[in-house]
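User: My instructor asked us to take a sequence, write out its structure as tokens, and then describe one feature of it. I'm not sure where to start. Here is the sequence I was given:
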Amino acid sequence: MTYISITFYLFVLAAVLLYYILPLRYRWLVLLGGSVFFYWQIMETGMAVAIVFATVMTAYGAGLLLQRKKSKGIFACAVLLMIFPWFCMKNGNYVLEILLHREPVEWIVPVGISFYTLQVISYLADIYRERITAEKNPAKFILYVMFFPQIVQGPIPRYDRLARQLYGGNRFDERMVVGGFYRILWGFFLKLMIADRAAVVVNEIFDNHYQYVGCYVLVAGVLYSVELYADFSACISISKGVANLFGVSLADNFNHPYLAVSVKDFWHRWHMSLSEWLKDYIYIPLGGSRKGRVRTYINLTLTFLVSGIWHGAGLRFLVWGLMHAVYQIAGQLTKNLQRKAAKLSGLEEASGVKLWIRRIWTFLCVMTAWIVFRAENLRAGLQMIWSMFRIRNIWIFTNDALLSLGLDWKEWVVLAVSILVLFVVSIKQEQGVSFSDVIFRQPVYVRWALYLFAIFGIMTYGVYGMGYDSQAFIYGGF
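Assistant: Let's start with the prediction itself. The structure tokens for your sequence are:
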């Protein structure tokens, strides 16, 4: 059962109907039962479910203990207990194979472990800091951690923002339910029209990186950047949309990150729940920017190294995190130089041109780091980047070379048009336009015409209409 399967939406429909039939005070039980059922369905073994329940109940008990006694020792032990299973499952084989030269282990990895681990750590930290009080009802705490729209890929929720929406029961709100439908439809568009189609070219180039060099790497870097954003944003959009059907509002996770004007701005827009978590529970506890410039840069670097470790095992993830730290430090150190250069070149007055130069430069920096992130290992990633600057095979854009990467010209056209739609929508939303409000104000027949047009368009031109299976959501692997 996945977020883009018919089975999932039959399950959601049944849960929504039951939710609004029951009295308010019992509605949270539908969410609890639905979440446990959904997680049981997506896992192949009961052991994985048992691991999740063991982690959740350990966090529940630790929360109650911290509520009674604020102890650094108890808090540190509780956090280590949360981290240990995640570290073993996500990094254990890297340690065994690369560092200890031992045989790898077949770990049972629960879906969403990287997300719910951060979730329960933030819960415990907030109890320790006396920001919240511990949840006394174990069933309600299980619902908070395992709420099915967000457990697979986030967004990473905070207890004080989500719990009250889950436990009290929500009345039917037509506007929110319709908005949820919009978000689900938009998620399908991003996943089936952009992400999975771009993945065909991306996989071909990255899997055969010795064969494809120069401008091929540029194509792969751009398309992987688009694929990753469309894929992750699709899952979050569907998650938020399904939650809206129950009257629950999940946190935003993206704010048009590729319109950022700096790498720092990018991290205010990309995976916002993770960025906020890293800031609140890593960067600020390390001292943030309160202890001088050098210490600030050290704290920033450590924070991004933690982000790299969270994303995966291996040097390439550490280097990816380090690249983003270096980008931000370099941006801070050259801030005055950038202002002088803009003034001398006349870009200070041409604000629109300056804005797009900064956006394009930021995208290129982020894209280069994504190449390291996506490559099979650090060496392959660095070789690909080097070939992108060294080999100038620009003719691949004028002959039929791109048609040999898995997509014919019609599929390239569909992909290009879909990316253009995403770009225009992003620009308009950046300017304050709310498409959901615009659509909601239309007469019913106009709205349904738009719905049907979007549904049949996705069914016809999406990957299902092309005869190959949809890719798994990328961030589901973290």
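For the description part of your assignment, you could build on this observation: The two ends are 18 Å apart (CA to CA). Try explaining in your own words what that tells you about the chain.
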